[in-house]
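Subject: Interface between my chains keeps coming out wrong

I've been trying for a while to get a sensible model of this assembly. When I model each chain on its own everything looks fine, but I need the whole thing in one frame so I can look at the contacts. Pasting all components below, labels as-is. Any help appreciated, I'm running out of ideas.
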Amino acid sequence: MSTASRSLAPTVTRRAQARLGIVLVLPVMIVTALFFLFPLGNAVYYSLVDFDGLNPNPPFVGLGNFIRMVEDPAVWHALGNNLIWILVGTAAPMVVGLLVAMLLWTVRRGGAIYRVIFFLPYVLPGVAIGIVWGWIYDPVNGLLNQFLRSIGLGAWATGWLGEPDLALYAVLLTAIWAGTGFAIVIFLSALRNVDTELVDAARIDGANSAQRLWFIILPQIMPVFLMVLTLTLVGGFSVFDIIFVMTAGGPANATEVLGTYAYDQAFVLNNIGYGTTLALLITILSVPIAVLLNRLQRRLSLQGTGA
Amino acid sequence: MKTPLRLTALGLASVFAFALAGCTGVAPGGGNDDPDTISFMIGNPEDPADLELTEADMAKFEEETGIHVDLKVIPIENVQTIVQTQLRSGEGPDVFGYDTGPGFAGALAEAGLVFPLTDAYEEFGWPVYEFAKERVTFDGEIVGIPNDIETLGLYYNATVFDDLGIERPESTGDLLDACTTIKDAGIIPIALNDLDGWQGGHYLSVILSSMVGSAGMEEFISGGKSWDSPEVVQALSLLKDFNDAGCFPPSPVAIDYDNGNALFYSGQAAMNLTGSWLVKDTERNVDFEVAYIPFPAPDGPGIFSGGLGAGVFINATSKKTESALKLLDYFMTQEHGAWVIENTQSIPAFPIDTTGIEATPLFTQVLDDAAKIADGTGDFGYNIDVLTSAEFNQAMWDGVQAVLTGQATPEEVAASLEANR
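Reply #2:
Try treating it as a single job with all components included. I did that and got this:
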């Protein structure tokens, strides 16, 4: 409704519209306050006290938990693992997902079956995935080592989750396997809206596959690409369940990330104040990136670029 | 908390067969005001059959007393979090299972969250062994009833030992020789599994206990001796030596507790170091002769590490303490103790007349060993993690993993233990 038409509307109507607006927005406001603002405020409170989970009147420590966090080498170690997770765990599903989606895009028959097959791991519970892959990685009876031995690569058989230098990447591979299906399905949906005439025209003009992908297809699916990127990236900061199930941050903290370290501090060592501070760090790190990518996505959408 | 809760699960599942407990969002009394209904929180036992035993046990209690027990079962790994949160919020179950020791029940007692039971002990005359009573006594107040007595030791496949001509190891040297023979036969010598971390604490407990004896362990626990002393370094070095010698599976820190036990059950491994709570499962799952011995000392057969499993406590805010006390009193009867021994193959922490009780030879041996703990005639070491703080336990679990994976030296780990005392 334009400003002119709004100003011409009777006062009673404007008030009714305002009331209706409030009524419509109220449920969202309540839900936001209840499930976002209140927990956030609570988390900020706990980050300022030394709460052990039992004392009903925990002592106020101000920024003590934040100072401790900065000085804690375990935090930096965990953050480093988070960065590896974010880099590899974001790049791999994006690249593999896009390539597989491109392949499936051209499939004329049985596309639905492929989509189900690739998407299936994504809908499986993380805990179940972690347990099953734990069996696969088992150093004695695991399928992976048995397979390696059966093809004469027994020297490569190892305790994938027990080697400090390998364990993080072994878990990461599981996460990539589980998450790539999501990227494939979303990219595939976006590709259905790509203008194929432009692709054909580029092909006639001599553009090779990589050029068509980079200059013709990718710009058209960029908002969707950014949406998947945002979700995967933020997931990299908050990763917890699959590591917790498969290694619990071990061996000897080799796969510790901020999520598992925060859990250990809060629920194993009863440093709930400090654990909450670590959880806030995850929020502080991931929200700006999410907001940035979201804005970029909206801008591209408004420019008319994308699927 | 991985180790204690895990042990609590095993311990309680095997004692009263009602492991750790929990209920969510329930007001004391099971969410209703019926004085004849109490809530009892338990963590899910490893074996579903144990839960059925617990339910039958509670039904029998109801039949005898007219008090209905609202049994709440939650994942074992969440017990500590749920218990603390619910008790602190003034809610929670009337009765619950929880780990004993200063870092667990002691913390609840310090916060005033558990009902004092000193008067109840006097009134009901519960005959709990003194050493067990001490583990649930904080600042002079008894706050719980200990469940069961447990030992940590080495199960071995006696059939394989006989086949390979190996005698029972009487020293760590013997054990190392046995490892070599077993390994040469294509069998994993000891099914060390340390993915979860807490099992490493058991290894340190048994090695150190056999090395320094109960008096030495007492000094470590009480603070009389430093954790970075040469004995601890030697114990950790021994673990490293065994690992380097191939006594353990490849990458033992990549194997979890269940898979480690499965290696032993299936005959892929010849020995398994764990607790007496696994007697029933072991006998149920193997088709060979099993023996249970202490982990040897460098110069002798060694001693078992012994101690308590978990305990049962009453919520300080429960409005049904009278009914809750009746439940605890039921657990302390001779009949119930005998039922526990026969059905769950666990050892109550009070004297039981075992005449007429049918037990397998292996469990009979465990019973005899436990009796020696109880009457003080045997020399028993300690299971460290039930007596130390959460910070220390974390350092110990991480430290053993670090030794096994070469991330830290025994000296560094010992120093870390002392720093986290």
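Reply #3:
Confirming on my end. Chain A touches chain B at residues 52-56, 134-135, 137-141, 157-164, 167, 247-248, 250-254, 264, 267-270 (CB under 8 Å).
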